[in-house]
C-alpha cells in the first residue's frame, strides 16, 4: 500500500476539512492522510511524508513535532496551518524550523502554489542527498565532515571558477611551529562553523584546506580567516594564503595562493594576500611591473633555465653518485614544466624531494618521507636567484642522508 506523502495533523478535522479538499487539487498521485496529535509520531515514522501540515493550537505540541521531523525526516517540509495570522507566532515557528504557513481561509490557488513549491524543494533535497551519497561512494566527499576531497578538486574548481562572480580563494593550514598540537578534525570543525553553506571547501591529506568563497571580496576572506582562527580559541596557530579569483584558472589560482601561503609561513603574519605586482627582481632581467602577464612569462622562462642548468644536472649527478650505494633502493629523478622530483624507494622506505614552481620568483621544495620511524617532512620556499648548484646539492644530500638513516636502522 502506498504511503501518504502529505500528512495533515490536527485535533479539529472539521475546521480543517476545507484545507483537505483544497489539497486534493495538487496532483493525482499525491496521497493525503489526516491524523491527530496522538497518532502523529507513529504516522511520521511509518508514512515518512514529504509535506507535513501542522494545524494545532498548542505551541508545545507544534514544537515537539517540529523537533521530531528535524531529527528524523530532514528532507520533509513543515507548513503551519493557522486560523488567524499572528506575526510573532509565525516568526517563532520559522525560527523553530517551519518552512511556510497557510490560513484556514486561504484561497485554493495559494495553498496549491505553496504545496507544489514545497514538493519541489523536497525533490531537490532528495536529489542532493543521492548525489552526495554517490560522491561519498566515489570518495569525492568526506563522509566525516561533508567537505570535498582532493580527488576531483581540479574539475570542481574549474567549473565553479567560470561563474564570473567576484570571489576569493584561501589555502589554510597549521603553523609549522604548532605541528605537534595540530588537530585535523578541530580545524575542520572551525572552518565548517565559520563559512556559509554555499561556500566550497576541499580537504587535502597534508593538513591543508582550499576554501572558495563565492561572491566575496578579499576583505570578506580576511574576515572568514579571522573567524576560523577565533573559533580555534588558541588550540594551535594557523596560516593562510589569500587571493582574488578574478578570472584566473584553478591552476593559476592555486599557484599564486601557494606563493602567498609560503610568505605567511615564513613571515610573522598569520595570512598574506597575494599581490599581482609584488614581484622580486631576478638576476639581470629588466621587468615592466605593469605587465603582469609578461612578468609571469619571464619568471617561467627563468625557472626553465634554472631547471636545465642547475636542477637536472644536480639530480643526475647525485643519482649516478649514489646508485648502487643505498641498500635495495631504486633512485629516480624526473621533471616536467612545473616540478622536479628526486625519488628514493625501497621496501622499507619511500622518500621524495619535490621542487614545485608555484609562479613568479620562488620555488617551493617539499621533502616527504613515508615508512616506519621516518624523519620529519620539510618544506622550503626559496627565491629562484638563490637556488644555486651548491645549495641544491647540500639540500639533496641531507635528504639522502635522512633516507639512509631509515633504511640502515
Care to describe what's here?
The chain is of the alpha/beta class. It folds into 3 domains: about 5-135, 3-Layer(aba) Sandwich (Rossmann fold), CATH 3.40.50.2300; about 150-275, Alpha-Beta Plaits; about 290-405, no CATH class. The chain has 11 helices and 16 strands. The protein has helices spanning about 15-25, 35-45, 60-70, 85-95, 110-135, 155-160, 185-195, 220-230, 250-265, 290-320, 390-405; strands at about 5-10, 30-35, 50-55, 75-80, 100-105, 150, 170-175, 200-205, 210-215, 240-245, 270-275, 330-335, 340-345, 350-355, 360-370, 380-385. The strands form 3 sheets. It has a 6-stranded mixed β-sheet with strand order 6-8-9-7-10-11. It has a 5-stranded parallel β-sheet with strand order 2-1-3-4-5, sandwiched between helices. A hairpin with a 5-residue loop joins β8 (about 200-205) and β9 (about 210-215). α7 (about 185-195) crosses α8 (about 220-230). The protein starts with 5 loop residues before the first strand and ends with a helix. Mean pLDDT is about 80; it is low at about 275-295.
Amino acid at each position: 500500500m502506498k504511503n501518504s506523502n502529505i500528512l495533515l495533523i490536527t485535533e479539529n478535522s472539521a475546521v480543517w476539512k476545507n484545507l483537505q479538499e483544497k489539497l486534493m487539487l495538487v496532483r493525482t498521485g499525491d496521497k493525503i492522510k489526516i491524523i491527530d496529535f496522538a497518532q502523529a509520531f507513529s504516522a511520521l515514522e511509518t508514512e515518512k511524508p514529504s509535506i507535513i501540515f501542522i494545524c494545532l493550537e498548542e505551541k508545545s505540541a507544534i514544537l515537539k513535532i517540529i523537533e521530531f521531523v528535524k531529527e528524523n525526516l530532514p528532507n520533509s517540509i513543515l507548513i503551519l496551518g493557522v486560523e488567524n495570522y499572528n506575526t510573532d507566532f509565525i516568526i517563532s515557528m520559522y525560527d523553530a524550523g517551519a518552512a511556510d504557513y497557510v490560513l484556514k481561509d486561504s484561497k485554493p490557488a495559494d495553498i496549491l502554489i505553496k504545496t507544489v513549491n514545497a514538493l519541489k524543494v523536497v525533490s531537490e533535497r532528495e536529489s542532493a542527498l543521492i548525489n552526495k551519497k554517490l560522491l561519498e561512494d566515489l570518495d569525492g566527499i568526506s563522509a566525516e565532515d561533508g567537505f570535498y576531497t582532493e580527488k576531483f578538486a581540479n574539475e570542481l574548481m574549474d567549473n565553479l571558477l567560470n561563474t564570473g562572480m567576484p570571489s576569493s580563494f584561501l589555502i589554510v593550514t597549521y603553523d609549522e611551529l604548532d605541528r605537534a598540537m595540530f588537530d585535523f578534525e578541530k580545524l575542520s570543525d572551525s572552518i565548517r562553523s565559520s563559512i556559509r553553506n554555499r561556500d566550497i571547501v576541499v580537504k587535502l591529506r597534508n593538513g591543508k584546506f582550499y576554501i572558495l568563497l563565492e561572491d566575496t571580496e578579499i576583505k570578506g576572506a580576511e574576515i572568514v580567516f579571522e573567524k576560523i582562527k577565533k573559533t580555534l580559541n588558541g588550540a594551535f596557530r594557523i596560516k593562510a594564503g589569500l587571493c582574488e579569483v578574478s578570472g584566473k584558472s584553478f591552476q593559476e589560482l592555486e599557484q599564486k595562493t601557494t606563493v602567498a601561503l609560503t610568505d605567511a609561513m615564513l613571515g610573522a603574519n598569520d595570512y598574506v594576500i597575494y599581490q599581482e605586482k609584488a614581484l622580486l627582481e631576478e638576476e639581470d632581467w629588466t621587468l615592466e611591473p605593469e605587465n603582469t602577464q609578461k612578468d609571469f612569462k619571464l619568471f617561467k622562462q627563468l625557472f626553465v633555465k634554472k631547471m636545465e642548468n642547475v636542477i637536472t644536472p644536480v639530480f643526475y649527478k647525485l643519482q649516478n653518485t649514489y646508485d648502487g650505494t643505498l641498500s635495495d633502493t631504486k633512485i629516480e629523478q624526473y621533471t616536467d614544466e612545473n616540478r622536479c622530483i628526486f625519488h628514493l624507494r625501497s621496501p622499507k622506505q619511500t622518500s621524495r624531494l619535490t621542487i614545485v614552481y608555484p609562479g613568479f620568483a620562488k620555488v617551493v621544495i617539499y621533502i616527504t618521507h613515508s615508512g616506519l620511524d621516518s624523519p620529519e617532512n620539510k618544506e622550503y620556499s626559496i627565491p629562484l636567484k638563490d637556488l644555486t648548484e651548491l645549495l641544491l646539492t647540500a639540500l639533496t644530500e641531507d635528504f639522502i642522508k635522512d633516507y639512509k638513516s631509515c633504511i640502515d636502522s
